[in-house]
Design brief:
The structure is a homodimer.
Chain A lengths: L12 H25 L4 E7 L5 H11 L5 E5 L5 H4 L5 H4 L8 E5 L1 H11 L5 H20 L3 E8 L2 H13 L9 H8 L1 H15 L6 E5 L3 H21 L34 H19 L8 E8 L5 H9 L7 E5 L5 H4 L5 H4 L8 E5 L8 H4 L5 H20 L2 E9 L2 H13 L9 H8 L1 H15 L6 E5 L3 H21 L8
Parallel strand pairs in A: 1-3, 1-4, 2-3, 4-5, 6-8, 6-9, 7-8, 9-10
Helix pairs in contact in A: 1-10, 5-6, 5-9, 6-16, 11-20, 12-20
């Protein structure tokens, strides 16, 4: 992987000087067109060995292009708000919106590589993280992001020489830190581990480009040309977005037996039993939320279900047991303008709770495989890939200590009709019923298929679906509270799922 | 202020039980209407003495109303991202958008009161902070926020009794912390300081309501009724937004002599001198940005000016001297949907830099008194009050260690015409010239008046305007670099402007 970058590439300064002005102008032009059309975002990852010109390149790109349309993020030690959330949260919040260029200095590669070099993670874990990165980048590319991954390389003897040169010059001395020399000591391990990571993660969608960092002219012009060619190509072929491979279509079960049909929706629960159980489980939930071990964990609870299935009421029975300072309920409606300029999952990532807290989603990322699928708001290829993306998202949470619970509240068509009619009678509930609810009702069968496939493909051992028979509201509320309590209880009892300490 | 809340108010439980269901329903109804119309946000501040039912009330409100439309924020110790920015930043980021209810548990009152009680700040400083709060809340109200300020009170002996009761009951013991007893020791000082603050900050726009915290029924129903009456009143009188008092109109100077007329726009600068000075000042800026003292400070640089005055070019000469990891350029265009749902200054607060960093605004909050004034995008009362709000905003920054520099780049009409024509010739610069630029040009005189008033009213000793004669781009760039360097240099030499540490 690094051999060709150790050939000692060089470029004549005269050639550089001749080409630079035209390149700059063309890059600027591409950048303004990118902004004006705002159809996709450009993400540039800058990684590699110290002294190979990473920082200089980032600065050069900001000089060549219009810095007003570039967002540069360097990832050092995470802030406390960042380390309180799943590992990838800080990268999601740094993604540029459509029309902009984002330069990520460090990126999601630095941590696994450095942790592997220092022996903090084992080979299997390292392998797994690389696979996760491949899937994450695939998702970005499918969401329309134009991704460049630059690795700046220097052979061992050249790195040593370079660091010494920088140290000798008083103007550049500050750039060589103790950490740089510390890293140098581990050059060989670093090279070996990096190479493994690069090989694993150089995919068709997001290939690595290794750049010989020694000669400034060579390095700069290589990066500049690659960027220009990549952005221009995408701009000139408006439909050059990586086409999803068309998967074979999903087929309904041959016997037409759907998951929801198997539920006994009419469960019984006496009012008196309900009152007693409600108090008991709310008390339990309150105790769990104040458990010392809970300060290291967090909860993400997802509520999905038929319209009028009682999500709001169930959520309120749950929050009533909690301290309002500890939870946030996030109702998911149409995405805002800022959310539409980002990959699909961005608007859920932004709401993830800090440790010790709970976020309750009233509707969620499952909209992609429910309403968006049924209504045709996105292409089949988009919702088909969403199953795997969602599983990755939830695994990322669970591995970082988040307790994920997911509820589907199921009622039948008669019960729904009864509730719709009731809502229209009651003044203050009229806000809750819209034209859209009546329209969705006509697609009952299509939703049944979508729910069936959703549960089939996203009910995992780490984040299982709980189907809630909800014709009887009292029964449903108790089942939800109980399920949540048990999930928290078993998570607090188990060794922490978190991988980073 | 607290006497009436020490009368020992009580409410019969039967009355409470009778009224509660109707109140809940009416609150829910109001909440859904608030959401549907999304015309204003409701902010509820919860402050007062420990044990007076603050937490219980917050939980009750979340139970009574729909928690999906409420955002509750408790303010404990600031996170590192928060303490790295001006004091009010954490409150700005917690403001609810239009259509939502935000409950702020703690709020901007807690810190000054506790600091005054502990003697960390002097009386004069405390006084000043209260005045700042008054102006801040006035701004919120003018921006359409419906603000409730509840102070929960308990007489000294009752507080002691209450804390003891809570401690005795195993179910509530956890709620009494050492800090609560520590606070209790200072009850008298706390009462005295709080009363001063409440008296100072109980304004016509945002009056305090002191609530006797002893009796749960009395306390809860009082808060509920007040909220309902307040929200309903505003909903039922769509135009009940506090009307700005119409100020006397601004008059142009009698002799028609405007600030910009006094500038000698054609300055000279030889190319060779420029190259030499550019290198020198960029080197200086680079050194300053790496000065150890700079890690405790930050820079906010504002660029305003005529269209085509050379803002972009000047910004690039500045960023070229900096490490890209350290700065962010924020171009200000039309606000996004999320920004439009917030008070005007929200979209600038969100971009303020952490310590050790620079944010460069290409156009800024001055849009309010420039383009919005000239084009009539906002009412006269709105841009008239903006001068004072902007001065408050900038003072808040400076007092927290931010170095604020502001540039107006001035060219004359002939120079602008020349540049417009040039831009239309050059392929990649065509993106930079729009219909709007030509239209703005026709309003040259109106902009001259607006700039005159702007400088007149917002050039303060702590955040002065620098007028830049920009017919000669080289001269302008050097003047800007030099001014910025001197501002940073003198700030780093001076004792820290910050007040909290």
């Amino acid at each position: 992987m690094f051999e060709t970058a150790e050939l000692g590439h060089k470029l004549d300064k005269a050639i550089y000087r001749q080409e630079e002005p035209g390149l700059r102008q063309a890059l600027l032009e591409a950048q303004y067109e990118l902004k004006q059309r705002s159809e996709f975002a450009v993400v540039i990852l800058i990684n590699g060995v110290d002294g190979a010109g990473k920082g200089e390149t980032v600065n050069l790109l900001n000089e060549w292009m219009d810095p007003r349309l570039i967002q540069t993020h360097a990832f050092g030690a995470p802030s406390d708000e960042e380390s309180d959330r799943p590992r990838m949260w800080r990268y999601w919040r740094a993604l540029p919106p459509k029309g902009r260029v984002g330069i990520l200095f460090g990126s999601w590669y630095s941590e696994p590589i450095l942790q592997r070099v220092s022996g903090d993670i084992k080979a299997a874990r390292f392998e797994q993280e690389n696979e996760e990165i491949v899937r994450f980048e695939k998702m970005l590319v499918h969401e329309g992001v134009l991704l460049f991954k630059f690795w700046f390389h220097l052979a061992k003897d050249r790195q040593k020489k370079r660091l010494k040169e920088l140290e000798k010059d008083p103007r550049t001395r500050w750039r060589v830190t103790d950490a740089d020399w510390e890293h140098f000591k581990h050059y060989d391990e670093f090279r070996e581990v990096s190479e493994k990571s690069l090989l694993k993660t150089s995919s068709a969608e997001a290939p690595w480009v290794v750049i010989d960092g020694e000669d400034t002219c060579y390095r700069s012009l290589t990066v500049g040309r690659l960027l220009l060619a990549g952005i221009r190509k995408r701009l000139d072929q408006p439909d050059s977005r990586v086409m999803a491979i068309e998967a074979a279509p999903l087929l309904p079960p041959l016997d037409k037996l759907y998951l929801l049909d198997r539920l006994t929706l009419n469960q019984t629960m006496e009012k008196a039993d309900y009152e007693r159980e409600l108090e008991a489980w709310q008390g339990k939930l309150n105790t769990l939320s104040r458990h010392p071990a809970f300060t290291k964990r967090s909860v993400v609870a997802v509520f999905e279900g038929h319209d009028a299935a009682g999500k709001g009421g169930a959520i309120r029975r749950l929050t009533a047991a909690l301290d309002a300072r500890q939870y946030q309920v996030v109702p998911i409606a149409a995405p805002t303008e800022e959310e539409r300029a980002q990959p699909y999952l961005w608007r859920f990532w932004r709401h993830l709770p800090r440790r010790g807290r709970l976020t309750i989603f009233d509707r969620s990322w499952y909209g992609r495989v429910l309403v968006e699928r049924v209504e045709g708001f996105c292409a089949e290829a988009d919702w088909m890939r969403a199953y795997a993306e969602i599983n990755d998202f939830e695994r990322e949470m669970v591995e970082n200590g988040v307790i994920v619970v997911k509820f589907w509240l199921a009622i039948d068509q008669d019960e729904q009709l009864k509730r719709f009619n009731e809502r229209e009678q009651i003044e203050f509930k009229r806000f809750k019923i819209t034209e859209e609810d009546w329209r969705n009702r006509e697609k009952w069968g299509q939703y049944a298929v979508a729910v069936h496939d959703m549960v089939d493909r996203t009910s995992t051992s780490i984040a299982p679906w709980t189907l809630v028979e909800a014709n009887n509201k009292l029964y449903a509320r108790i089942k939800i509270l109980k399920t949540l309590c048990k999930a928290i209880e078993s998570a607090l009892a188990a060794p922490k799922g978190e991988r980073n300490g």
